[in-house]
Give the backbone structure.
Amino acid sequence: MNIKKTLGSLIIALAIGAISYPVFLFINTAGGQFTTKVLIIFGTLGLLFFILSIGLIRTLKDKL
């Protein structure tokens, strides 16, 4: 398997975790300034990682 595809898959897993954490906090907390900052930071990083990893995997060509 190509190293870049493996890296892209690993980044996708990291992005899913980074997106899931703010969702978990949003559901289980009442709110507050700290929670809002965490939601914004982790949500933005998760979306950034997800978009970058999809772009990385999409631009790779399979070699036979």
Summary: The radius of gyration is 15 Å. Residues 3-59 form one domain.
